[in-house]
Amino acid sequence: MPKTSKGVTRVGLCEAVYQKVGLSRTESSAFVELVLKEISDCLEKGETVKLASFGSFMVRKKGRRLGRNPKTGIEVPISPRRVVVFKPSAIMKQQINSQPPGSGAVAGAETRWSLAGG
């Protein structure tokens, strides 16, 4: 049975980089911050961030619409905005669904990580 956790935090990511890559804690923290900043900067410019074998982050524009306050039932206008969406790769979908490697349409697919979009 999978263990339950509160989720992954920046501190947890920094610690994982520290333990697995061998950088100092300060360098690991700086590395994680740099990667997250690059991703957010690209998204802020409206670019898609594609991470091979993981998925894609993209900005989607939502138009003005009417919403409803669930407590009062009163209709309220919701202004247009941009939202970040994540689309997992086929490999990620296989991993989270515990499908054996090599099954399905992505057999032999590349598993390297890359950052694209800018």
Structure overview:
33% of the residues lie in helices and 25% in strands. It is of the alpha+beta class. It folds into two domains: 7-43; 46-106 and 113-117, HU Protein, Chain A (Irregular). The strands form two sheets. The protein has a four-stranded antiparallel beta sheet.
In a nutshell, what does this entry contain?
The protein is an alpha+beta fold and 118 residues long.
Annotate the secondary structure layout.
Layout: H1 10-21, H2 25-44, E1 49-51, E2 55-62, E3 65-68, E4 75-78, E5 81-88, H3 90-96, E6 115-116
Antiparallel strand pairs: 1-2, 1-6, 2-5, 3-4
Helix pairs in contact: 1-2
The poorly predicted ranges are 105-118
Count of discrete domains: 2
Overall radius of gyration:
19 Å
CATH class of the largest domain: Few Secondary Structures
Instruction: Give the helix proportion (percent range).
Output: 25-40%
For CATH, the homologous superfamily of the largest domain is named as IHF-like DNA-binding proteins
What is the count of helical runs? 3
Question: Main traits of this protein?
Answer:
HU Protein, Chain A, two-stranded antiparallel sheet, 118 residues, 6 strands, alpha+beta, 25% strand, 4-stranded antiparallel sheet, single chain, 2 domains
